[in-house]
C-alpha cells in the first residue's frame, strides 16, 4: 500500500465519513434502499466501522466510514486511519467533509496506515488508497509520510543490519538525495578531533564509533538537530537484563527521528540552514569497555564520573552538543531515547521535552495540538543541579537514588550548551501495540510538532 495519494483521475468510490450523531441526518437524504441496507447491517458509525453499499448491479456504489463520538476521538488519534485500515482494497474519495478534526492531519493518518515493515518477512498489503481531497497540500502530506516512514524503517531494522556504518549510509543517502554536505569522523580519528566521549562509549564494539555531520541550506536562521545514534545498547559492563535488551535496536531512535525530520525540512524547502549531528556507536562489552568509576574527559572540558555504563546516551550526546554549541546556531534540538524515567512519567504516547524559554514551549505545545503529535513539557529544574555534581569530577552520568532520572539527564546535557537556545526531547521511539496509523514497532515522536513549530520559534 503506497504512502502516497491515488492519482486524481482514479475512478474512486465515494466515501462518507460520519460521526455517530450525524448518521441519522445522513440517512434522511438517502434512498429507502440505502437506508434499509445501513439499518440492516448494524452500522453505527463507531470509530473505524466501515460499510460498502451496493448499487443495483451489486457492485459498491458508495462507502461509509465511522468517526465515532467526540469523546471517543478525544481518547485517540487518527480516526480516519482507523477507517482506512478497515476498508477493502481500492481507491476512495471523500464525498463529504469530516465531522471534526484537521483534514490534512487525518489524510496523513490515512497514508501512514499503509506503512508496513516487510524487509524480512511478509509483503506490503494492497490496501485502500485515497484521492487527495481539495483544500490540503498533498505534496506536504506525502513528504510527512515519507519522513515518518524513514524514521520507522531505521528503528525497525535489527542491529545486525543497522550499526554505525549503516546509520552513516542512511545519512549519506539522505544527503545525496537533497544535495546536502556530509562528513564523518570515525574510529581513532574521534580522539584526534576531540570527541573523547563518543570514542570511549563506542570503542568496545567491533563496529567503529563515528560522528556524522550533515549540513544543508545557505540562507536563513541556523537550526542544529542532534540525534542519539546508539545502534544497540547492551548496557556495557552494567549489563542490561535480557528482558530490557530486547528492543535496544531502537536506541538510535533519536537519530532516526532527526533524520526523518531533516528529510521533511529539506523536502519542503524550509528557509533555514540545517545541520544534523549524529554520534553513532554501539555500547558493547569487551576488555576495553569503559568502566563504572572511570572519570572521562569531554569535548567541553568538563570531566564526567561514570557511575553506570548504561547511561551512555548522554555521553555521546555531550560531545555532539558541545560541537553544535561552538557554531552558535539560533537553536539546538537534541532527540534521544534517553531514560526509562521519562516512560514512567508520561508513558509511550507523549514526547517529553525540555526548554527554558516559555514562548518556545508555548509555540511547540500549540503546534503539537494542531498536528496531533502530542508533547509534554518537563522542567529544567535547577534545584536538582547538585545531583549531577559528584565532587570527584565535574559531572555524574548516573546520579544514585533513582529520583528525577529524566530531569537530571536533561540537566546533564544542558551543561554542554552554553551559547545557544536549547531544547531536548527524551522520546521512546516505539509503539508497544498497534494503533491507527501507528503499527507496533518503531515510531517517530515530536518531529511533526517541531516541523510545524520551527518557523515560529526561529522568528522569536
Shape: elongated
Segments where pLDDT lies below 50 for 5+ residues? Answer: none
Multimeric state of these chains? single chain
Main β-sheet: number of strands, strand sense, barrel status? 9 strands, mixed
What is the residue-mean pLDDT, rounded to a whole number?
96
- Gross CATH architecture of the largest domain: 3-Layer(aba) Sandwich
Radius of gyration from CA coordinates: 24 Å
By DSSP (H or I, 4+ residues per run), the number of helices equals 16
The end-to-end distance, rounded to whole angstroms, is: 41 Å
The CATH class of the largest domain is identified as: Alpha Beta
- Residues in helix, %: 25-40%
CATH superfamily of the largest domain: Zn peptidases
Strand fraction: 15-25%
The tally of strands reads 19
Quote the CATH topology of the largest domain: Aminopeptidase
Counted up, domains total: 2
Structural class: alpha/beta
Task: Describe, in plain words, how this protein is organized in 3D.
By secondary structure, this protein is α/β, with parallel strands linked by helices. It has two domains: 13-136, Leucine Aminopeptidase, subunit E, domain 1 (3-Layer(aba) Sandwich); 142-459, Aminopeptidase. It has helices at 23-28, 32-41, 70-73, 79-86, 103-112, 138-156, 164-178, 189-192, 196-202, 242-245, 253-268, 313-326, 340-346, 358-370, 405-414, 447-459, and strands at 13-19, 50-54, 60-68, 90-94, 128-130, 181-186, 210-216, 222-227, 229-233, 273-283, 295-297, 303-305, 331-336, 351-355, 375-378, 395-396, 422-426, 430-431, 441-442. Helix 14 (358-370) crosses helix 16 (447-459). The longest helix is centred in the N-terminal third of the chain and has 19 residues, at 138-156. It is elongated and about 80 Å long.
Amino acid at each position: 500500500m503506497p504512502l502516497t495519494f491515488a492519482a486524481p483521475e482514479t475512478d474512486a468510490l465515494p466515501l462518507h465519513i460520519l460521526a455517530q450523531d450525524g448518521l441519522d441526518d445522513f440517512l434522511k437524504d438517502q434512498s429507502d434502499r440505502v437506508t434499509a441496507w445501513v439499518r440492516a447491517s448494524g452500522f453505527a458509525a463507531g470509530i473505524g466501522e466501515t460499510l460498502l453499499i451496493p448499487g443495483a448491479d451489486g457492485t459498491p456504489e458508495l462507502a461509509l466510514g465511522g468517526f465515532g463520538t467526540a469523546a471517543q476521538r478525544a481518547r485517540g488519534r487518527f480516526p480516519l486511519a482507523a477507517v482506512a485500515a478497515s476498508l477493502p482494497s481500492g481507491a476512495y474519495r471523500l464525498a463529504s467533509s469530516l465531522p471534526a478534526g484537521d483534514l490534512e492531519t487525518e489524510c496523513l493518518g490515512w497514508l501512514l496506515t499503509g506503512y508496513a515493515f516487510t524487509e524480512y518477512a511478509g509483503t506490503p498489503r494492497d490496501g485502500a488508497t485515497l484521492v487527495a481531497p481539495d483544500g490540503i497540500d498533498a505534496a506536504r502530506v506525502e513528504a510527512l509520510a515519507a519522513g515518518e516512514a524513514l524514521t520507522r524503517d531505521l528503528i525497525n531494522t535489527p542491529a545486525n543490519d543497522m550499526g554505525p556504518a549503516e546509520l552513516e549510509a542512511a545519512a549519506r543517502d539522505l544527503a545525496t538525495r537533497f544535495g546536502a554536505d556530509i562528513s564523518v569522523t570515525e574510529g581513532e580519528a574521534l580522539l584526534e578531533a576531540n570527541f573523547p566521549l563518543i570514542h570511549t562509549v563506542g570503542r568496545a564494539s567491533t563496529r567503529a564509533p563515528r560522528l556524522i555531520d550533515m549540513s544543508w541550506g545557505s540562507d536563513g536562521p541556523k537550526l542544529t538537530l542532534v540525534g542519539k545514534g546508539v545502534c544497540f545498547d547492551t548496557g556495557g559492563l552494567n549489563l542490561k537484563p535480557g528482558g530490557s535488551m530486547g528492543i535496544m535496536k531502537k536506541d538510535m531512535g533519536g537519530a532516526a527521528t532527526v533524520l526523518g525530520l531533516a528529510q521533511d525540512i529539506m523536502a519542503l524547502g524550509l528557509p533555514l540552514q540545517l545541520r544534523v549531528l549524529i554520534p553513532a556507536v554501539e555500547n558493547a562489552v569487551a576488555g576495553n569497555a569503559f568502566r563504572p568509576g572511570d572519570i572521562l574527559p569531554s569535548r567541553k572540558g568538563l570531566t564526567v564520573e561514570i557511575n553506570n555504563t548504561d547511561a551512555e546516551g548522554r555521553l555521546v550526546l555531550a560531545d555532539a552538543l558541545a560541537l553544535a554549541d561552538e557554531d552558535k546556531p539560533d537553536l539546538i534540538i537534541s532527540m534521544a531515547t534517553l531514560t526509562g524515567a521519562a516512560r514512567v512519567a508520561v508513558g509511550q504516547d507523549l514526547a517529553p521535552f525540555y526548554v527554558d524559554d516559555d514562548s518556545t514551549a508555548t509555540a511547540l505545545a500549540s503546534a503539537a495540538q494542531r498536528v496531533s503529535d502530542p508533547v509534554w513539557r518537563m522542567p529544567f529544574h535547577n534545584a536538582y543541579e547538585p545531583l549531577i555534581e559528584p565532587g570527584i569530577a565535574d559531572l555524574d552520568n548516573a546520579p544514585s537514588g533513582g529520583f528525577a532520572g529524566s530531569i537530571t539527564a536533561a540537566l546533564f546535557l544542558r551543561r554542554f550548551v552554553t551559547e545557544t537556545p536549547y531544547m531536548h526531547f527524551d522520546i521512546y521511539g516505539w509503539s508497544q501495540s498497534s494503533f491507527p496509523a501507528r503499527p507496533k514497532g518503531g515510531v517517530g515522536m515530536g518531529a511533526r510538532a517541531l516541523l510545524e513549530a520551527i518557523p515560529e520559534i526561529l522568528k522569536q
